Amino acid sequence: MTEPTVAGALSAASDQELIEFVRLCADFDWRNSEIQTRRVLREQLGWRGGAEDDEMVTPSGAVAQILGDDEQTDSVSLDHTDWQEDLPEEIDDDHPISIRFDELAAVFDDEFDTVAVEGTTFDGELGLFWMYEDGTRIWLTDYSVVVVSPSLASAEDYLEDNPDAFDELLDDGDEPGTSFLRD
User: Fold this and answer.
1) Roughly what angle, to the nearest 10 degrees, separates helices 164-171 and 150-161?
2) How far apart are CA 69 and CA 73, in angstroms?
3) Distance from C-alpha of 147 to C-alpha of 49, rounded to nearest angstrom
4) Read out DSSP for 32-67?
């Protein structure tokens, strides 16, 4: 990642790197396997393999995670800021995390020429999101930019409208995931 220029951060990805990532996602074919998506990210953005099997690393060192399988890609998450570990549990509007979040929201509002919608990601994290016409959803959270496929975005909407559905999935012994989207 870039040198720390964000107060309270060890390092942070540049706005330009984040914008290039979401622009590329506008053209994603989510029917591509995780391996094919990795190839696109490597060829188009210069990303390389990371420390973990599901990770990739950007040229500046930002870490990304890819969720998918042999049939499709469900999401790509890029950590926009590597925050110091001793952060308080409660974060007010003057905290560096809030300031960074607001700055990135303004950058994305300009990019998408619209204002974001508040919501909850598939894994329960609060954030803002913007939508592409095909249903691809771009999330901004305190730590990352998460781009989700139209099918995962639909599942998020369903779980937002039916909060007990996620608990029912877990009650069946399933681990959180998106396999039920293809059943």
Assistant:
1) 100
2) 6
3) 19
4) S-HHHHHHHHHHHH--EE-SSTTEEE-TT--EEEEE
Instruction: Name the residue among 53, 40, 52, 29 with its Cα closest to residue 149.
Output: 29
The answer to whether residue 183 scores a pLDDT higher than 80 is: no
Among residues 86, 83, 69, 58, which one has the least CA distance to residue 142?
83
The rounded distance, in Å, linking the Cα atoms of 93 and 68 is 35
Alpha carbon 76 to chain centroid distance?
6
Q: Report pLDDT digits (tens) over 58-69.
A: 988 889 999 999
Its pTM stands at 0.82
Alpha-carbon distance of 82 to 19, in angstroms, equals: 18
Q: What pLDDT, on a 0 to 100 scale, did the predictor assign at position 176?
A: 47
For residue 138, what pLDDT is reported? Answer: 94
Q: Residues 58, 64, 70, 71: what is their CA dihedral angle, to the nearest 10 degrees?
A: -110
Q: Between 15-25 and 96-112, two packed helices, what is the crossing angle to 10 degrees?
A: 50
Taking each helix axis from N to C terminus, what angle separates 15-25 and 34-45, rounded to the nearest 10 degrees? 130
